[in-house]
Fold these 4 entries.
Entry 1:
Amino acid sequence: MSASYSVIPSAPVQKGATFQKPIQELVQSVTMDAPALMVMTDFREVTAHTTHPLETIESARLKMINRAVRLLLVVDEQNQILGLITSTDLTSEKPMQIIQTQGIRHTDVLVKDIMTPREKLETLCMDDVAKAKVGDVVATLKACGRQHALVAERQPDRSQIVRGLFSVSQLSRQLGTSVQTVEVARTFAEIGAELIR
């Protein structure tokens, strides 16, 4: 018995057509006792936004605005994570310090100049996050004084993949209250460097 197949009708792509983007449906309102996964941006459902180290910070800023995000992963050609850059980095003293020390214009400051490098990043383990509550995430962000926390999964070959992230702005929206964290220096060396300036 042979199957019969029909030709699917086609039509031209219309001017102004766009494309579907993944959308993660997050619960509108949560409590501190809700499962942490209810407030995690899951990269299985939402595309992680990225930039490259040799892009200008102005290009990174425009990407953040156009994509309505405050964090970009900095990746190489193989999509391996080199670091991250946040909207806070863009508005901090970092760009001015680079301008002064390197004698360049603001338009020449690159992502690699002000990003937080991979070596300084920490991740939360997906297994721990799966058992945690929203309140645990808030406590973690407050304890480390960060606006974001990356979540990673260990693969069968022991490699690591960033699975998602937590964001203070997302937490605040879903909790219906402002979550305050303060960026803090992580080591005495960082505190000393701040005092010397």
Entry 2:
Amino acid sequence: MTEFLPPPPATASPPQPAAQPSPEQLAPDGIFPPEGFRGLSAKGLSRSFGSVHAVVDMELLAPAGQVTALIGPNGAGKTTLLLMLASLLAPDTGSISVMGIDPVKDPTVARAKIGWMPDTLGVWESLTVREILTTMGHFYHLPKAGIPGRVEELLTLVSLSPLADQKARVLSRGQQQRLSLARALIHDPEVLLLDEPASGLDPGSRVALRRILRNLAAHGKVVVVSSHVLAELDEIADGAVFVNQGRTVLAQTVAQAADQGRRYCIAALDPAALAEALGNLGVEFSHGTVRAESVLVTVGSEVGAAKLLQDLMAAGVAVHDFGPATGALEETYMSMGVEQP
């Protein structure tokens, strides 16, 4: 795939991710969103379906220039939240701001700023891939003369040029996902909402998707991604919002997630020497489940991990593998003890 966005000017520095606040820090002075905030925000969102409370008093900040991951178990309210953010579902209570626009009061203006990629693409099966994107361009009132060029741009971006004139009904699941992404990007939105975008993609397409999303964020877009593949979110996200049972549980940057207590996997040429050294250092450990010769330890920070490795080497232990047992976001998620509903 090729990038369809121009690179940032050579003299400019790429946008630096702003710190993602915790729920307690979302509005420390009672102002929400915080003064000067630019991006997507939601406060006090609730939505029920009969007796089912899908979303309860949820909060979210997704700054421009960042990829924000939305993480939670099935049934946590992620899709319901995204539908409300996309102005496709009205909240029972609460407020939303899309780049300063209230999607409840001004849905047309808000939708012009939003690109929505659902977890399952609904397509006009009788239309070709090119015709679908062209139709979407007209729906968003793009200049008629510019639509063909924009369509070609996106076909190249998502590697669907060879299938441009094929009917949508012949597309595989992964190809439909790529078409869904192109459809969401047709009008160059300021805000991109993606529900399980990597579902059905092959490994190469997943890598390309990560590159596209990082490029969009680098150009100042708001990117919100819901996914079950936490390892991939570690690679693309700047911040994460964890939800469970319809509520916001935690919000943090990926850097904050990495610099907290987490498990490290250690392996040495001589497992007995490793165990002895850890015992002498007063470090508790358990044996790994993947490889019998590896051990798992819990370290409080990345600085602590570096110090432990240094101490092991100073003790003469020939360490050949040392690293986090899981990604930072997965570690946070597992530490929350979230139960499936």
Entry 3:
Amino acid sequence: VELAKNPNTPGTLAIAISEAVEDAAKRDDTHYSLGSVLNHVCLHQTVIGQEVKLQMEMVDDYPDVVIGCCGGGSNFAGIALPFIPDKLTGAKVRLLGVEPTACPTLTRGVFTYDYGDVAGFTPLLKMYTLGHDFTPAGIHAGGLRYHGESPLISQLYHDGLLEATAVMQRGVFEAAMLFAQSEGIVPAPESSHAIRAAIDEALKAKEEGVSRAIVFNLSGHGHLDLNAYDNYLSGQLEDVVPTDEEIQASFKTLPTV
């Protein structure tokens, strides 16, 4: 149905979720479990942040900034949530989620009830959203092209316990190239959003003349994303920023609660 309405759509995670839910509902032997966004997924991922805390203890240090890329939220939640109790009891750690400017859910979305998929099959979720009809541009970080945000991340961001920033696609790949050349690891485009922000934080600390412990989540390799790197190196990659009018149009389809 969605493809019939817009046959040239680059697709979205929201469309994929609708298709998966519809397919599962037609089969007696199939159940569907979302792999991001929902609370049980985010909490399962927190083993990452727990390991980070132990690793920092091993070197007798504690992070000033913890950074993760942010699409549906499970990646960022995984590294950030274990630091929330510390923050609530006085720790000065900053928890920074990094999203693409092409899909700026936290930085330009609204905190309200919305569907997790384009067809409205899921329960309503209280979250930051660009509207379930929002179609992000076809950037290479496909895992971050989601209109909504984890309810847990959304509430903590709304309460001021988390921060968010949005970064341009070309700047992301610039950071990815620097990381690959200096560390010998080709990072995934999604993870490279966190690398971009980590570099920016390091440069800011250098300008201020202070020393900061910066931790970021390198959540995946880019071995299957070499075409994206080729596009960057050949100058074909574009920065994408949706207009206010495009986002406002998507807000008009939000459900009335």
Entry 4:
Amino acid sequence: MITPSIDSRDLRNALGRFATGVCVVTTRTADGQRAALTINSFCSVSLDPPLVAWYLSDRAPSLQAFSESEYFAVHVLTAEQQHLASHFARPSPDKFAILGDGVRPGLGDVPLLDGALACFECRTTTVVPFGDHVMMLGQVERFGYGAQTPLLFHAGKFMAREPVLQT
């Protein structure tokens, strides 16, 4: 049923019925500061050229860091990495402290998280505001992936799902 007037809370609840993957995006600013956050707005845009996009609230504390950085990395999380999704979703003075040696440098010295289901190292190509969010478009320069179970987000909850048997 479509509501004649849009209630933002109801709209958010309806949109939450769409299951998504869960990612952590990382970057490094020109002055060397690391930034990261949890997202579920990641999507493929093009295979040729290889482009991906994700969206960031225009009120996010890390907006400036991501908007001004030349590179970012999108880490698709596994079901076993729910703790990382929760951790990077909260404000923290040093979000990377809990990782210890579980971080290595990527393109542009962007921090890469170990153990992700997939990782896309991207050069930022376009930053465009849309409504209350900003679209970050990046060209994939390097990527890698595994075969673990993905972490999903549905109706406000983290979930893990195995493939459905084909009949």
